[in-house]
């Protein structure tokens, strides 16, 4: 069993990006600039955005965090987005989700300039991805592709089962794993809460990508030997024995499934660290497209 170490790979990617930024500075070129809008005071969102700012500092990017109150109206947020769309100094920006209930998330994501949409959530970018055109791939699926690529995990002709159909992970992964090229060229089955006999499907899978958010959902008896497991799930589970009072758990019963797997991502330290690294990679791409 080989551990797909997202922590190591994400550090490698950040080092590669830092080297590119160093060359830009030597040549007197503009370095990439990433902005993030955060509305409200959600603790997990604030932590996540802070880690993005820290990652920008590490690779030499400029970063801007735009804090808006929980009572921000949809119009105020749309005005701020338009301001960032027009700001030539900013190469890409993200809107941290979830948004307060008075704001229509879809309307807000549609307002982002597709050329600055480094999250890859705009329908134009999603459509380009579905058509195999060059575009921003959402950061988590992009990170999964990068892990498969760097560990030379064979995907051609394999049966990939995706558990979950969210627009952020499940749906894009089902498209990407079936595309021409590597990683891709696999036969994809997408499963969700209405799928019957899910064990019958997962037990035939060569590759399983689980983005369900149900702790320890995937058991050893649901997978075959030598399966490749990508665990995107990340849930806080109460644990009195832990100093924090909780542990981070994935969708996969790691202890038992890892005994059967050929490759597996740990949680934490697998897909999670890759997401921020790929957001930086998308920002680098946005800067190249704009300059």
Automatic annotation (TrEMBL):
Keywords: Amino-acid biosynthesis, Histidine biosynthesis, Hydrolase, Methionine biosynthesis, Multifunctional enzyme, NADP, One-carbon metabolism, Oxidoreductase, Purine biosynthesis. It catalyses: (6R)-5,10-methenyltetrahydrofolate + H2O = (6R)-10-formyltetrahydrofolate + H(+); (6R)-5,10-methylene-5,6,7,8-tetrahydrofolate + NADP(+) = (6R)-5,10-methenyltetrahydrofolate + NADPH. Its EC number is 1.5.1.5, 3.5.4.9. This is Bifunctional protein FolD. GO terms for biological process: L-histidine biosynthetic process; methionine biosynthetic process; purine nucleotide biosynthetic process; tetrahydrofolate interconversion. CDD domains: NAD_bind_m-THF_DH_Cyclohyd. Homodimer. Belongs to the tetrahydrofolate dehydrogenase/cyclohydrolase family. Pathway: One-carbon metabolism; tetrahydrofolate interconversion. The keyword Transcription does not apply. Pfam families: THF_DHG_CYH (PF00763), THF_DHG_CYH_C (PF02882). It comes from Formosa maritima.
